[in-house]
Amino acid sequence: RVRVRGLSIYRPIIYGNTATVLTSRERDALPHPDHTHRWTVAVRSAASEPDSDQVGGADDLSYFIKRVTFKLHDTYANPSRNVDKSPFEVSETGWGEFEITIRITFITESGEKAMTLYHHLKLHPWTASGDPEIPPLDIAMKLGPVHSWQYDEIVFNDPYQNFLNLLTTH
Ligand code: SLL
């Protein structure tokens, strides 16, 4: 277990959410008639991949991430959601925005401490006028999906030699 002193290695990620307004037919099919949106919160690689048209790369982060825990609002059943394989994401329906705590646990061999990120779940579109009012659902539906993503870099300082090898040979 040798650390490589003085070396930093980073991996680019994005984290955030997409959201769409449910159609009235979709709402009728749900057990929660008050839910207005379907959303997905995710942690993804920010590395570009050829032929990937999704937000973020298609790259699988599980070679160094063991688990991502998404802590949802307490109005949800089992608000603490563990995801142990790629894609590291949770999809739900709901009616309100709230802060999601995202805890990233690295593979045991890394010897790295878990990392915590915060993301404000965004359901309502920003309008061109900068008007802070929430647009009505029929207008929001015409505006299309909402995307709210942040870029970050996971930095490993003085990594263990084995972990460094794993990262660089991936
Ligand atoms: C608000 N502070 O008042 C926020 C809370 C909670 C959102 C939003 C689903 C709940 C369920 C849901 O959308 N919760 O499934 O019961 O705007």
UniProtKB/TrEMBL annotation:
Keyword Zinc belongs to the record: no
Summary of the function given for this chain in its UniProt record: Component of the SWR1 complex which mediates the ATP-dependent exchange of histone H2A for an H2A variant leading to transcriptional regulation of selected genes by chromatin remodeling. Component of the NuA4 histone acetyltransferase complex which is involved in transcriptional activation of selected genes principally by acetylation of nucleosomal histones H4 and H2A. The NuA4 complex is also involved in DNA repair. Yaf9 may also be required for viability in conditions in which the structural integrity of the spindle is compromised.
Subunit structure: Component of the SWR1 chromatin-remodeling complex and of the NuA4 histone acetyltransferase complex.
Domain YEATS positions: 3-170
Single GO biological process annotation from the record: DNA repair
Listed GO CC annotations: cytoplasm; Swr1 complex
Taxonomic classification: Eukaryota, Fungi, Dikarya, Basidiomycota, Agaricomycotina
Annotated localization: Nucleus; Cytoplasm
UniProt-recorded name of the protein: Protein AF-9 homolog
Protein family (similarity comment): Belongs to the YAF9 family.
Assigned keywords, A-Z: Activator, Chromatin regulator, Coiled coil, Cytoplasm, DNA damage, DNA repair, Nucleus, Transcription, Transcription regulation
Comment text on domains: The coiled-coil domain is required for assembly into the NuA4 complex.
